[in-house]
Amino acid sequence: MKKTPEIRVLVVEPNRDIADWMMPVLEDRGYGVDFCTQADEAVQRIRNNRYDLVLVHDEVEIWPGRDLVKEVVRVSPFTCCGVITDMDANEIHDRMESLGIVGHVGTKPDPETLNTLLDGFESIWKLTVPTAGSLAR
Predict the structure, then answer these.
(1) Is the CB of residue 48 less than 8 Å from the CB of residue 76?
(2) How many domains does the chain divide into?
(3) Where would a tag sit more exposed on the chain, N or C end, judged by fewer CB atoms within 10 A?
(4) Are the CB atoms for 72 and 55 separated by under 8 Å?
């Protein structure tokens, strides 16, 4: 039986209520999920642990979301990022363009939109995870 590596997700969200609606959706997909409320803690966790996806609120403490996403990419270039925000798609594009985010989800409970983001993320993730056959070469 082939065992696939567990997908690890870090949710960086200062509002616990927002994280509380997201975490069951992530766990139902079989992801390992960690949560933190502070940007500095998030960066430290990313330095010390492997995360495949980081979901970042667009404003965490004094760090604007764009700066935090840039720091995640600098510290862990192969970690995908998604943004938790109530900005409209055009504003997200203007603020986050060139950062390579995999998508965004609002702060109000919306499992369908979160699952759409996760489907897109998994499409990318599957291309980056080595298979047993590729390791044998």
Answers:
(1) no
(2) 1
(3) N
(4) no
